[in-house]
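Sequence in, structure out. Go.
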Amino acid sequence: FLFFFFFFPVLPLSFRNAHTMASHLASIYGTEKDKVNCSFYYKIGACRHGDRCSRIHTRPTFSCTILMSNMYQNPANAPTLPDGTPGCTMTPKELQQHYDDFFEDIFYEMEKYGTIEEMNVCDNLGDHLVGNVYVMFETEESAEKAVADLNNRWYAGRPIWAELSPVTDFREACCRQYEKSECTRGGFCNFMHLKPISDSLRRQLYGKRDPLLNDPDRARSPRRRSPPRRERFDRRGHDDRHDRRDDRRDRDRYRDDRYHHRERYDRDHHRY
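Output:
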């Protein structure tokens, strides 16, 4: 017995408590029970409170997923004109074609950095999610190369803001009620509402990887490629850094105004 006790001493109670606490913290990390780290940022890579959030946003140093914030400008979200005229007069078919063209543009450009596992675009209306484009690459190296290059590029006359995202599973980030057409929060839901592409474009982009998409029993008429468009991606030099800082300052000021307006709305309607 003395021999066993000498070579296998009993661990101190404080050490065992610390180990138990560490295991507990690891098990709740990034969940609603975690009072330190923001669960929304961990799952979605974005939080409506931004830097004002009372919980920590741990930005990843490596990831296979990148986020390009507020990149897709949906014509359907155009505000109504002062005279009451709708801001968007496009038909649903034209809106889908506009979105498919955008998705196709981005997908083929992102493929230059590496193999794409998944690409999604948010259809939410909240400032932290509206128009967000998420691209999950096969390797972390591809994602890192894409972020480094994209932050020096523009698309359709607007600067691109790219960063590594903690999102690893889009099923956890998506709103399940939205997928069932039961979401009551609409476009201001804090979970992703992913905007779908047309079946023909999905077969065109993913058909080689998923044989089911090329099943003749499921296939419809092939999607016609859009006519050649002007190069939307642009690369800017050092002289445009001041313009990018101005754009970022204007965007932050706009978000501040929207944030305070949203806080007043939640307070007046008792939504927390």
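Check: The radius of gyration is 23 Å. The first strand starts at residue 65 and ends at 68.
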